[in-house]
Amino acid sequence: MNPSPSMVPARQYRATVLSNRPVSTGLIHLVLECDAPFGFLPGQFAMLNFTGAQRRTFGRPLSILAGEGLRAEFLYRVVGSGTADLSRLVPEDEMTLLGPLGTPFPDRPEDRDAVLLAGGVGLPPVLAWWDRHGRETDRAYFGGRDAGDLPRELLPAAWKMSIDRRQDGDDERLFEGRVPELARTDLAATGRGKSFVLSCGPLLLLQAARRLATEHDWPCFVSMEEHMGCGYGACKGCVVPLQPQPDSPDPWRNATCCQDGPVFDADDIVWNRIL
Ligand SMILES: Cc1cc2nc3c(=O)[nH]c(=O)nc-3n(C[C@H](O)[C@H](O)[C@H](O)COP(=O)(O)OP(=O)(O)OC[C@H]3O[C@@H](n4cnc5c(N)ncnc54)[C@H](O)[C@@H]3O)c2cc1C
Ligand code: FES
Fold first, then answer.
1. Sign of the CA dihedral 151, 274, 78, 261?
2. Is 236 in the pocket of ligand 2 (CB under 6 A)?
3. Are 191 and 259 a contacting pair, CB within 8 Å?
4. Which end of the chain, N or C, is less packed with Cβ atoms under 10 Å?
5. Is the peptide bond before 100 cis (omega within 30 degrees of 0)?
6. Is 129 helix (H, G, I), strand (E, B) or coil?
7. What are the structural domains, with CATH classification, of the chain?
8. Would the CB of 77 count as within 6 Å of ligand 2?
9. What are the tens digits of pLDDT across the range 46-79?
């Protein structure tokens, strides 16, 4: 693998909201215009914060969906007060953005096709990788809760989709079940040579992605969306347990999701310390 694509330096931007609208029942697409050109690598994230009285001590980390020229795009779900306030922003509102932060997904190894698995709000980093590196022989899968949860206007036509529950009238091409089952079924039908796996979404999806990769002896990289505080390595609020260094007496070593991640080689993570 080539795990070290060249990084864009992080900086603080002032940003104006261009649009902030739902693209499915649960997902909101936020488009910002920054006060300077914004660059990033797929898998990196930014800390978004408000201005004025709404400003938080810590911003909220969101993976970068797209960024070109002055535009920066995100996709998020409302889970608490920060994302609820975010959902109330309207065009012309101002906010701040610190980024791009963190370690990106690796570039494509020359001789391998990609197998991409994303679930829910895990879509942005995986879709960003596809937009930059995807090719016809890659396979990409996205899973939502139900048909209304699928952000169809953002999903490329080549992606296959699964939903947890099928209802009357749902598109029959949708796979009923979880993303890893969809991937297994499709890969078994189409066959696969040398590949590598990239994944972002709930922890159970990341673990299943790793199992799939292990069965085929493929490399697997996952983006961990741990809870965060500062976003820059100071508070240690985002620890991810990794395999110990050789000869270390410790059963694991602590990495930070914000600086050492959010993308990790799935084989480096001590999964039974997380789940
Ligand atoms: C590197 C990274 C990338 C992320 N990318 C995205 C993204 O692209 N889109 C998106 O919607 N979300 C993403 N998240 C999660 C997002 O940061 C949180 O949902 C958000 O910070 C919650 O803020 P809040 O104030 O609304 O909720 P809070 O009031 O802080 O929390 C509300 C509830 O959500 C839970 N929660 C908070 N943070 C997380 C988290 N990281 N993972 C799971 N549960 C959490 C809390 O335990 C609580 O139950 C990412 C997180 C990280 C670390
Ligand atoms: S969020 Fe503070 S160390 Fe990672």
1. negative
2. yes
3. no
4. C
5. yes
6. helix
7. 11-101 (2.40.30.10), 105-222 (3.40.50.80), 224-275 (2.10.240)
8. no
9. 999 999 988 998 899 999 999 999 999 999 999 9
